[in-house]
Please model this.
Amino acid sequence: MTIHLAILRIAACLVPGGQRPEWLAEWRAELWYLRQRGNRQITVFCLGSFRDALWLRRNLPDVQPWLRLETPAQCLGFLGLAAVMCVLLASRFHAPQMPPLPIGQMLLFMPILAVGCLPALVATSSLRLGEYPANRYGWRWAFLVCKIALVLPIVPSSALVLAWIVGPWFGQCMFVECIIALRWALIDQRQRCPECLRLLDHPARIGQLSHTFLDSCGTEFACPKGHGLLYVPETSTISFRRTQRWQHLDRSWSGLFS
Amino acid sequence: MAAEPKLSHTAALILQAIHAGDGYGFSVMEMTGLPSGTVYPAMRRLERDGLIRSQWERQSIADREQRPPRKYYKLTRTGEATLEASERRYPLLAKLTAMEVDQS
Model:
């Protein structure tokens, strides 16, 4: 297997399962023709497959996440369990070159690390949580704080276990883990109903980006309990709304969701 | 009257290349000069929006010529109408891809 085919196979892992064989067949065929023509840009061509695969992963409506923590109790319960397991594992099985897990120091250090990660987080993800009516939905913030508080202990304890593999790169590993964890907490927060904190569902596309210049284009999600609709613009630069916006539905709409 | 659909310049260029060229991914890349990481996702989007449709070449034809079958893209009727509108909006579009065809 050549390096080019290996690149395509790795990229294929990002494509949703149902589309994968056809997607790989198309890229392999194009690769064959490129080789026949003696093209020198084959590696660059193959690396482009990652963008294509990511586009399919993000835009196909039938893709479901492997773990769906729908209710806030499920989410916090899972994070709590993961935090306890990671701390227990780290205290018993951490790499020999690492000191025993100092819980107190860790609790002090993690908020500092989280603040240190902010510039990298801003560079890799949007910090905007969307437009919601002011002075309402205070539970959202409490839920976000709880999530972050449960995610932060997972970072150093899992990094201590991973130190078996990453060795001297332990610090960098913990930094990257912290960015991923905070990014996940923000993305998860944007996907929840601000009233019941359940994950939103029933995505419906509005407009078509290929046809649109300054008009509305995005995806609308509905709360499974009928509390409202969340409009998420497809791109923040083109669409008429720059950030996601929550539309509250009063009780007169409840018949549609029962 | 229905609103005239609008395409970005890149999307219009790709649509024109599919119309004027051989209709497979690499030919679009050659005609437009765009990298694969731009062309393929754009073609998926155009296909999702119903402006183009894809079709695999028959296996028997490919077998006869001892090569893998290729996936070809064609404009739908909506795609043709959109391309016409885009050519009015971007007058250099047709000339640009015509030059590429002449060179190849």
